Amino acid sequence: MIYVTGKARMATVPMVVLINKGSASASEIVAGAIRDNGRGTIIGETSFGKGTVQEVENLIDGSSLRITIAKWYTPNNVNISKVGITPDIEVKRSIEDMKANKDPQLDSALSYLKKQ
Fold first, then answer.
1. What are the 10-residue block averages of pLDDT along the chain, 116 residues in total?
2. What burial class does residue 42 get, using C-beta atoms within 10 Å of its C-beta: 0-12 exposed, 13-18 middle, 19+ buried?
3. Total-model pTM
4. Residue 50 known to be catalytic
5. How far apart are alpha carbons 34 and 113 in whole angstroms?
6. How far is CA 36 from CA 17, 41, 62, 94, in A?
7. Which member of 21, 25, 27, 81 is catalytic?
8. In the beta sheet, which residues pair with residue 41?
9. Which one from 21, 23, 27, 50 is the annotated catalytic residue?
């Protein structure tokens, strides 16, 4: 672990993190860390749930093998594998929204931040 010292310069600035089912791996860990530390609000849809680190071994026949070498945990020791990060405020974005170039998740985040 790496510990830091010093004064946080923007610790009181409101923060929102947008996630959806495409948010995976490191982005989930960042969202989980922000949540676990009470630093921001998570808005969107439950994330993918990729809580593992894998290496690929190429085999001589041209195929490959993925080997799990580590697991991701949030600061509160939560493994998000197969469950993901559940948002504090759930807002879905449908295919119709995407086709119409609408983003209700971003709209919700902006509205939330304006109220802070």
1. 80 94 92 94 96 94 95 91 95 96 97 95
2. buried
3. 0.83
4. yes
5. 16
6. 13, 10, 42, 28
7. 25
8. 16
9. 50
